[in-house]
Amino acid sequence: MQTILDGRQRALLAGFAHANVLLAFDYDGTLVPIAPTPAEPRLRETTRRLLIEAARLYPCVIISGRALDDLSERLEGVPVWYLFGNHGLEPPPPGIVSPTPAGEWARELERLLPDDPGIVIEDKRYSLTIHYRNARDKRRAVEAIDRVVAHLPDARALGGAEAVSLLPRGGGNKGVALQQACRWFACDSAIYVGDDATDEDAFSSTYPEKLLTIRVGAAADSHARFHLASQDEIDSLLEILVDVRAR
Fold first, then answer.
1. In the chain, what are the domain boundaries?
2. pTM for this one?
3. Which of 8-17, 20-29, 157-166, 186-195 has the lowest mean pLDDT?
């Protein structure tokens, strides 16, 4: 997996920047650093400024695992074209008002997981995330989460940064959201930037055919083609995209 910031990739980035391209970003671990608790991550001022500039130059969407209300509050004042919450499950399609079984999953997890204040269940109505970053025994926590999740009906587990997200099996995901955004905004190419297993559905998307995938942190088993060495390099990538498009 090559770094996208290598000078040899400047022509590739320029080619996408001059095309009818959609910019799509994950939030946690991509636009903001991973933090000890879900409430903490906020955009750095430099990132916010560059993202505002990028959203004025390109069709730009955010596809996050966060609930939509939470994501909207954190990106207030940033003129992105669209926000997808809950890994693309939110907002739901018109006419669909029933939530997923996330509440039922949360109750079952609370009943069966170890009594450890470091294991936090975040119920986001359409999906949920089990955080174990602060668990007393992370290995035991992961084993317990895997054991319980395996028996939850219709739950699809996606690993993350010391967290496990649960989505309804066969439902929407970040890849579907990326495809929808490309169609809605009539883009025939896209750049997608994410950081963990919840982004693999977007990294492996077959539409659009011209798709530049970038992962924060190299991983041999990822479908992403390029990587950023660390989260703070998102500013360098945004700066290049803004500069090339502005010229």
1. 20-28+44-89+172-246, 102-168
2. 0.93
3. 157-166
